[in-house]
């Protein structure tokens, strides 16, 4: 599975140089509804649920990706108004489906599970999985894919699980292809580097083939 990480110029070059990505904590995300896709109107249910949510947030972090790199809104929001870079990674199929999942987008909060305190382990795990990968539909433009990890280490190194495959330089980014390749070092031969531009016929970001 190919996934894309949008970063500003500083952090993108730092990640390429160090060959790792920083894990994100739940408390650092920009949506107050993270891990709470349920109707929490009932005070007692809300209290019990938030205890579970906060416990998860203490132990797990995540890497957030997008399924594609062509949407100009994502570049604007997550890559410093097109002045940053986008890193493309290949995640092996055997990893997808367990820790790595596509986000599901919904219009209204889900009904809170009946007898929450007495759920069996299997049902509780399914509930946690839904918590981790369900968001309000107005975030749908992100086409988000998430990899959940523990928080024992702050960074996740590039390697077999997270294989760097391409680097896309934003339309207004001043970093050159040569500078990116120099930062990649020994990875340079295996990683595609390209420059982005605004498309002529659609509202998309595409490769600027004239930049080669």
Q: What is the first-to-last residue Cα distance?
A: 26 Å
Question: What's the alpha carbon Rg, rounded to whole Å?
Answer: 19 Å
What structural class do helix, strand and pairing data support? Answer: alpha+beta
Instruction: Let me know the largest β-sheet.
Output: 5 strands, mixed
Note the overall shape.
Answer: elongated
Beta-strand share of residues? 25-35%
Q: Topology as H/E string?
A: EHEEHEHEEEHEEEEHEE
The low-confidence parts are none
Strand order of the largest sheet: 1-5-11-12-13
Number of DSSP helical runs: 5
Share of helical residues: 25-40%
Q: Would you tell me the overall average pLDDT?
A: 91
Task: Tell me the count of domains.
Answer: 1
Number of strands: 13
Give a short overview.
The protein is an alpha+beta fold. The chain contains 5 helices and 13 strands.
Describe the overall structure.
It is a single chain. By secondary structure, the protein is an alpha+beta fold. The protein has one domain (2-211). It has helices at 9-18, 43-59, 72-78, 121-132, 177-184, and strands at 2-7, 20-22, 24-25, 60-66, 85-90, 100-102, 104-106, 134-136, 144-150, 155-157, 163-169, 192-198, 205-207. The strands form four sheets. A five-stranded mixed sheet has the order 1-5-11-12-13, with helices on both faces. A four-stranded antiparallel sheet has the order 3-4-9-6. The chain starts with a strand and ends in a 5-residue tail after the last strand. The mean pLDDT is 91.
